[in-house]
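User: Here's a protein and a ligand (adenosine monophosphate). What would the complex look like?
Assistant: Let me lay out the input and then the predicted complex.
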Amino acid sequence: MTSFAELGLDAVLSQAVAAKGYDTPTPIQTQAIPPILEGRDLLGGSQTGTGKTAAFTLPMLQRLARGRRVSRAPRALVLAPTRELAAQVGESVATYGKGLDLGSAVIFGGVGIHPQIDRLRRGLDILVATPGRLLDHAGQGTVDLSKIEILVLDEADRMLDMGFIHDIRRVLKLLPSRRQNLLFSATYSPEIKALADGILRDPALVEVARRNTAAETVAQLVHPVAKSDKRALLSQLIREGDWHQVLVFTRTKHGANRLAEQLGKDGIPSAAIHGNKSQSARTRALADFKANAIRVLVATDVASRGIDIRLLPHVVNFELPNVPEDYVHRIGRTGRAGEEGCACSLVSADERGLLRDIERLLKREIPVAKIPGFDMKEADGREDARDTSRGSRARSGGRSGGGRDQSRKPRGSSENRNPRGPRRPRRAVR
Ligand code: AMP
């Protein structure tokens, strides 16, 4: 088996990785580290959980350490979609770069800008940032991006989903044209391809885990349940399974808040994490969760993106996501880097269309486990036959149908739902 040293990493970096407890590179690391060390551009098809952060951080640090700093301006820029992911990448940079004489900083919105300005003024080598706040700094002239030698776009697909394409293009204009570019994305949409084509020169192509394939180590299950019984089922699963550290996904911020509150009332300490929460509230919730001070973290898709907790044993889809690719991202939170994990989805009758879309994306059926006392029937005996994959149309009484066409649409806005085609035969959840 290859070691980090055999990939070409200097002793100081191999030792830093070993100090984290890793002695064997993951597949993405084995494939990505050598070409990045050579200075090549790279297109990385890799989900979170595969060890991709170290895959770009380690060779980036080595190249910077071997190069020369000529000014206080950063030499490497990592763009990340969310504050959490930026913070996490920043932590990796600090951890792996401990033995090197390199400075780094993380800047994102939602926190005071002045400490960031002070930090940038003192000079640094690596800047990790979310696009919006970076442009704020650029606009105020508090960051100089003209010395960037390495650009990393981390989770580029998510950045596009979140509407950052214009911000990214604005940032690109501030960078010198001669630089190394690394682009990581879990999925390849035409938009990602266009972005990659515009940025990368003769990139090394590195892909681990088949496209849109859920991490193999994650055991996935569907529990059929009436919508109105979901919370009772979740409480039961957590209590009877003696689950600790459960990450639960809801579709809306409001739903996340309500569920965290209800679980709290059931005696299960929980917190919600989503985009409307202040950065300090999000950081605190995550810290409490990591420290086992709360048992359940309820998250929306966007907020969850940067969450990285090793050995996270349970991920629950309280509601299926509207966008099938999000299912893959969600369950990527567990079974990370080869650890065992389990992901279960509480599926009500109205979500059958969404389940179908997810299974089509995964190219396999997710096993169904009925929990005694629970099924899809509502208390009044009716099965809610609406199909939420049609978003607001379903709720406003639109016709029934599948939810496939909007799978490539930006998330989070019900206006994006297409009017449906003809009614598709409905399949009962097995
Ligand atoms: P990432 O895909 O970068 O989000 O990393 C997923 C998780 O894998 C993180 O918790 C890393 O600390 C961990 N990790 C990174 N590299 C390795 C490795 N070589 N062996 C085991 N775990 C790793």
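Summary: The chain has two domains: 5-207, 218-390.
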